[in-house]
Amino acid sequence: MNPQEQRLEYPLGERLPPPGASLEVAPGLRWVRMGLPFALDHINLWLLRDRLDGREGWTLVDCGIANDATRQAWEQVFDRELEGLPVLRVIVTHMHPDHIGLAHWLTERWGCRLWISATDYNAARLGSLRAGGHGGDSAAAFFASHGLTDPLSVERVRQRGNYYASMVPRVPEQFRRLMHDQVLRIGGRDWRCIAGYGHAPEHISLYTEDGGPLLIAGDMLLPRISTNVSVFDLEPEGNPLPLYLASIQGLCSLHEDTLVLPSHGRPFLGLHERVRQLQAHHAERLHEVMQACSSAPRSAADLLGVMFKRPLDLHQTTFAMGEALAHLHALWFEGRLERRLGEDGVWRFANA
Ligand SMILES: [Zn+2]
Question: Under 8 Å CB-to-CB from 167, ≥6 apart: which residues?
Fold first, then answer.
């Protein structure tokens, strides 16, 4: 556990839900943990006892990735954990593959509706189309324009054109729209939707104070790792970092004693402390970037060695490029850096 993490409290201790089973974290709210084939090797999903349109059953929050292992784990959960009741609806916090991957399978299997923000729904539909989805030539050209020019990396990014679609092959054809401040009645509790920006197009977290404050945080607030905040080729002049920082600042209006249920890591207490830690983390990163750009103009690729002190594989490099750009763009939009396109076609940022 790193020193920052020690300032958070984990009320469930070391307990984790066993594969294919669940662990109750509050009355009528159960934690399920599914594997992921990445360095980040698991995702947390939530089962909420519910009653909808006169039927008793369960609401699921998030789905896991679309692969056979996750489908099998869900079947075990259905057999053991639902008290013989059906799934009534599937809420998805945002469009990333580990969250929405199995939404199509789950809603079809149970004949129920997907609930999600319209922005993330449309982004997922677009990304799941094989042609013109995320990545491919456009991503390779974008990274090259920010200094990732070595031919091997460019070629590998280009070949990954169907990366999102390979993990999210289908998205349900209909959905029910979630919006900020909307209140959902789930199993005797009123849950308020909180839109968050900077990580996904329109991420929805769920907050309740009924029976003690709880936040289903999705990826907006994680205990151990910082939430990915990246600029992508689809929106080359995006400025997601201020959006993310404003969103987590907003979470500070929630109760200090909120039990935070994150999508990765363990449920924790210390919401305000964790927001402060992340604010400090990004302030430090912005400072590093500002310093690096004050000695010479730098591209995003130039900053990887400054910001990330460990060797990165291709997957991590693309994430790191996005993160480096998020910090560069925050400073550029603030007017502290300016950017110039070099004769080599690479954008470099320098003190304004
Ligand atoms: Zn995410």
Answer: 65, 66, 97, 101
114 and 178 Cβ atoms separated by less than 8 Å:
no
Q: Buried (b) or exposed (e) across 116-145, using 16+ Cβ within 10 A?
A: bbebbbbbbbbbbeeeebbbbebbbebbbb
Q: How far is the CA of 28 from the centre of ligand 1 (A)?
A: 25
Report CA(321)–ligand 1 centroid distance (Å): 17
How remote is the CA of residue 295 from the centroid of ligand 1, in Å?
34
> In the predicted model, is pLDDT for residue 118 greater than 80?
yes
Pairwise CA distance, residues 236 & 143, whole Å? 10
Taking residues 137-166, report their average pLDDT: 88
Q: What is the mean pLDDT of the chain?
A: 94
Given pLDDT bands bounded at 50, 70 and 90, which one contains residue 150? confident
* C-alpha 337 – ligand 1 centre gap (Å): 28
CB 224 within 8 A of CB 5: yes
- The answer to pTM > 0.90 is yes
Q: CA–CA separation, 98 vs 92, rounded Å?
A: 10
Range 33-37 average pLDDT: 90
Q: Give the contacts of 308 (CB within 8 A, at least 6 positions apart).
A: 316, 320
- Over 80: is that where the pLDDT of 328 sits? yes
Give first-to-last CA distance, the chain, whole Å: 40
State the DSSP string of 298-349. B-HHHHHHHH--S---HHHHHHHHHHHHHHHHHHHHTTSEEEEE-TTS-EEE
Q: Distance from the CA of 313 to the center of ligand 1, in angstroms?
A: 19
For ligand 1, a single-atom ion, the residues with CB < 5 A are 96, 219
118 Cα to the center of ligand 1, angstroms: 16
